[in-house]
């Protein structure tokens, strides 16, 4: 049984991708709108209080000056969206002496909300503040002490410091927003990589399941279907049952080994995520008992990647595949050209899978067809050719009438092409002119370089 997915990963996509949990952002004390309302209210109260304490400080009557002081604070509600108009009102209020509290807040807003996007505009606003708040009496210009005091209070404290503080806060906010956006982009990329890895893993598991189980189960179905015809012969029935038992045991053994490899491979890929996942999915198997290799001709055990199997291992595995198909009623012949040689384990496995998939397809689509398997060993390549003639009998239907006896998913040759490609070889498949089918594969005699 395949391992179940962690329900926590289903509830949290970040757990499924292996990403660290992001700390919950700290909620601000006030929303931007609430902060604007509080600031405007405080400035309004301060301006009204100052106007009441100095009723004749302004261009009009005392009550009119109080009203102007209150109105001059209201534009601060729009300081985030329109800092320049707010600053213009503040400078006008400062020039009319109706409120001295609006100008610092307006310059802070100019630096915080316009400075990060346009520093030139912020410095132009500072120049305008220098001009608008300059002394208007000749006595102030004639006294250096008065001029320095004016510059310190009216320009540095009311204009320059709030502007620079706002620019710092705005720039810091922009940098933090950029870092957050970059982190979110990296997280999205990691999630896409994890999803691609999961899709690749699912495809690999499907291919392994097909390769390991399909051939043996097909043989079981063929032999089980033949039991009805030989039920009167006790000896043949016993032999057929023994064949079915052997094929079923091999299928279970291969499936168990494959699941073990998948678990080990998942743990290894979790520690070495930078390495490719699908190149050698079964490269860490333990040695198998003698005779178990007949099910897949070398798909099970594998020593270290650089180790090689015996020179005739691939021939023996393919011969056993042919013998199994022959006992199932398929006339199969094997021809070997050149001297058998030791092959890297991935190449040997790919050659075995080519023959296995081809024979399975003959059982499914061309029952009883004469089949010829040829292995040609060259110094640098190994060529495998499987040719079957037209079917000798029609495709049998399932007992329940739900389709053919051996259904086909249509993905076997596609998965086989991918396996051969990973082994560094090429494969072609096409129908023949007499109603048969042909599969030709060329594999490197040396292990392909990464």
TrEMBL record:
<dbReference type="GO" id="GO:0000155">
    <property type="term" value="F:phosphorelay sensor kinase activity"/>
</dbReference>
<dbReference type="GO" id="GO:0046983">
    <property type="term" value="F:protein dimerization activity"/>
</dbReference>
<keyword id="KW-0597">Phosphoprotein</keyword>
<keyword id="KW-0808">Transferase</keyword>
<dbReference type="InterPro" id="IPR050482">
    <property type="entry name" value="Sensor_HK_TwoCompSys"/>
</dbReference>
<feature type="domain" description="Signal transduction histidine kinase subgroup 3 dimerisation and phosphoacceptor">
    <location>
        <begin position="201"/>
        <end position="265"/>
    </location>
</feature>
<keyword id="KW-0902">Two-component regulatory system</keyword>
<keyword id="KW-0812">Transmembrane</keyword>
<keyword id="KW-1133">Transmembrane helix</keyword>
<dbReference type="GO" id="GO:0016020">
    <property type="term" value="C:membrane"/>
</dbReference>
<dbReference type="InterPro" id="IPR011712">
    <property type="entry name" value="Sig_transdc_His_kin_sub3_dim/P"/>
</dbReference>
<feature type="region of interest" description="Disordered">
    <location>
        <begin position="1"/>
        <end position="27"/>
    </location>
</feature>
<feature type="transmembrane region" description="Helical">
    <location>
        <begin position="147"/>
        <end position="169"/>
    </location>
</feature>
<dbReference type="Pfam" id="PF23539">
    <property type="entry name" value="DUF7134"/>
</dbReference>
<feature type="region of interest" description="Disordered">
    <location>
        <begin position="266"/>
        <end position="311"/>
    </location>
</feature>
<protein>
    <recommendedName>
        <fullName>histidine kinase</fullName>
        <ecNumber>2.7.13.3</ecNumber>
    </recommendedName>
</protein>
<feature type="compositionally biased region" description="Low complexity">
    <location>
        <begin position="275"/>
        <end position="296"/>
    </location>
</feature>
<feature type="region of interest" description="Disordered">
    <location>
        <begin position="425"/>
        <end position="450"/>
    </location>
</feature>
<feature type="domain" description="DUF7134">
    <location>
        <begin position="32"/>
        <end position="173"/>
    </location>
</feature>
<keyword id="KW-0547">Nucleotide-binding</keyword>
<keyword id="KW-0067">ATP-binding</keyword>
<dbReference type="Pfam" id="PF07730">
    <property type="entry name" value="HisKA_3"/>
</dbReference>
<dbReference type="InterPro" id="IPR055558">
    <property type="entry name" value="DUF7134"/>
</dbReference>
<keyword id="KW-0472">Membrane</keyword>
<keyword id="KW-0418">Kinase</keyword>
<dbReference type="InterPro" id="IPR036890">
    <property type="entry name" value="HATPase_C_sf"/>
</dbReference>
<dbReference type="GO" id="GO:0005524">
    <property type="term" value="F:ATP binding"/>
</dbReference>
């Amino acid at each position: 049984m395949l391992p179940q997915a962690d329900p926590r990963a289903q509830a949290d996509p970040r757990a499924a991708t292996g990403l660290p949990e992001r700390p919950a952002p700290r909620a601000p004390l006030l929303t931007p709108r609430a902060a604007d309302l509080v600031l405007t209210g405080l400035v309004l109260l301060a301006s009204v209080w100052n106007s009441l304490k100095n009723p004749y400080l302004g261009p009009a009557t005392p009550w009119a000056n109080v009203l102007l002081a209150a109105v001059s604070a209201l534009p601060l509600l729009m300081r985030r969206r329109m800092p320049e108009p707010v600053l213009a009102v503040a400078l006008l209020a400062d020039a009319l002496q109706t409120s001295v509290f609006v100008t610092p807040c307006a310059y802070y807003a100019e630096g915080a909300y316009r400075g990060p996007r346009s520093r030139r505009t912020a410095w132009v606003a500072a120049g305008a503040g220098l001009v608008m708040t300059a002394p208007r009496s000749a006595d102030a210009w004639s006294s250096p002490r008065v001029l320095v005091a004016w510059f310190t209070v009216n320009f540095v404290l009311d204009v320059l410091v709030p502007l620079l503080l706002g620019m710092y806060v705005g720039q810091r906010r922009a940098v933090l927003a950029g870092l957050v956006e970059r982190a979110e982009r990296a997280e999205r990329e990691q999630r896409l990589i994890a999803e691609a890895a999961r899709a690749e893993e699912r495809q690999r598991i499907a291919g392994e399941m097909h390769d390991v189980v399909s051939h043996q189960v097909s043989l079981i179905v063929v032999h089980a279907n033949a039991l009805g015809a030989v039920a009167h012969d006790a000896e043949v029935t016993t032999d057929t049952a023994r064949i079915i038992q052997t094929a079923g045991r091999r299928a279970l053994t291969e499936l168990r080994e494959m699941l073990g490899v998948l678990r080990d491979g998942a743990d290894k890929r979790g520690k070495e995520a930078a390495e490719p996942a699908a190149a050698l999915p079964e490269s860490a198997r333990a040695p198998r008992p003698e005779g178990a290799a007949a099910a897949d001709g070398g798909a099970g055990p594998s020593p270290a990647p650089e180790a090689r199997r015996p020179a005739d291992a691939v021939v023996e595995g393919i011969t056993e595949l042919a013998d199994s198909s022959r006992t199932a009623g398929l006339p199969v012949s094997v021809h070997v050209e050149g001297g058998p040689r030791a092959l890297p384990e991935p190449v040997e496995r790919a050659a075995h899978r080519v023959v296995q998939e081809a024979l399975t397809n003959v059982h499914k689509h061309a029952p009883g067809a004469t089949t010829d398997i040829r292995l040609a060993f060259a110094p640098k390549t190994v060529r495998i050719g499987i040719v079957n003639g037209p079917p000798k009998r029609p495709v049998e239907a399932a007992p329940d009438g739900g389709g053919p006896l051996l259904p086909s998913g249509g993905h076997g040759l596609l998965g086989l092409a991918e396996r051969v490609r990973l082994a560094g070889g090429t494969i072609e498949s096409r129908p023949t002119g007499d109603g048969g089918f042909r599969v030709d594969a060329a594999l490197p005699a040396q292990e392909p370089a990464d």
